[in-house]
Amino acid sequence: MMRTSGVSGIAQDTILRDVLPHRDKPWWQYSSLLSLNLLLLGCLASDITNGYDGTMLNGLQIIPAWQTYFKKPTGSRLGLITNGTRIGQAAALFITNPLIERFGRRKPIAIGSVIMLAGIAFQTAAVNEAMFVIGRVLIGVGNTIQQCCCPILLSELSYPSQRPQLTGILNASGSIGQVMAAWITYGTAKMVSSSWSWRLPSLLQGVTSVFQLVMTFAMPESPRWLVYNDRREEALTILAKYHADGDSESPLLQFEMMEIDNTLEREKLQSSTSWFEWFRTPANRHRFFVVLSLGFIIQWCGNAIVSYYLHLMLIDMGITNTHTQLVINGCVTINGLVWGMLFSFFIDRLGRRKMFLGGMAGMFVAFLLLTVFTGVNSAHDFGITGLGGATIAMIFVFNAFYKMASPTQEPYFMEISPYSLRAKTSVIKQFGDTGANLFSGFVNPIALAAIGWRYYIVWTCVLATNFMTIYFVYPETKGLSLEEVTQMLDGQTNTKDQGLEAANPIDKAAVELEEHV
Q: Model pTM?
């Protein structure tokens, strides 16, 4: 194995190529990998619930029985119903980190699933608007706990060479939930005179949470958390079983344990780092702005209208038929699934800036044309059939370009942060995301009710602002290691003299493994 003294001297893929065992058969023909990946389905299901929720509410607004039962909510009333999950998400921010630190990754997934199921029970059995909103708040709390824990457990437990692919699948699984919700509400809408036309989609939202709850009894705990809590032998057993086919002398197993040890050394630094560190240097202030703005930008580009208020948009376009609205809702979700899966494979090929800028530019053009087409057609009492079709087409174009920008956020906001601030980065980004959604959830229905399609002009301007912010402020991180991104932002040009202490845990583990061998 080659030796290095610099931070970027050993690339992660090179190290893994050295220590990964040679496998001459597909992964599913190895019992250890097959078992591990089947268990990890409990993590991959987390985003399905989140995607299901938004599209289900969109579908419920189209169902006449739901509108009648809740007395056709509009404005602030509709905003409260929509924002129930966002309120729950905001509340969960205060309890999720302590849960993860105390109970690990696996048990909080179970806790989140139980809270989710309680919320779904309230939502399904709701006899009034207050009960429905309480259910949605509980869903927001439970889903946030799940969404915080599942990516961590997935990244810390998955087989090293499969980790990027599994992370990509997790990112795209929200579209699966959207497709499910859209076509379930399409089917139940035919139950015209029954409240089960909206209760059944609410009830079926619990399927993934039941699945996740059951899987938590079988999934192993994070080896990293076990080592941190002085349960090293348990971590060694788990990694040997699922990563090394039971071989306790495997070079991969030795490397992973050394990597965990060195990473936890860095976490001591992280735990003692103050929040004020974000403002100590120009580079950290730059990072803080990017992380905070990223949460807002991804949620403030008009997507909230398409995700939660497509029903109102279609009415503004003159499309009032329930069946037609539900079909469009279903087709939009399929469109999103296809493009989300496709673009997730291009993040490393195109680079982060190109994905962000291309997505924002495409959304801007689509929203601009959507606004113009709707305005012209409304002036003619929606009598121009061609413009109606073109307007709907712009919704699909917008959705495709949104799926170009959104998958890039997950790797990007971690890449630009130094290790000592990486945990706090997640909290800041989630704060921006939740704040943006709370604002949109309350303001969008009020604005749509007040000025209709003219409200689209606001989001066209916001998209232009987003593009300019990314263009002038967001650096490219394609092809750089985490340490090289840190050096780029900090203005460092020479790190060879910083020694092993400046290296990341992967570099240190590689050197230690080489010396051990």
A: 0.74
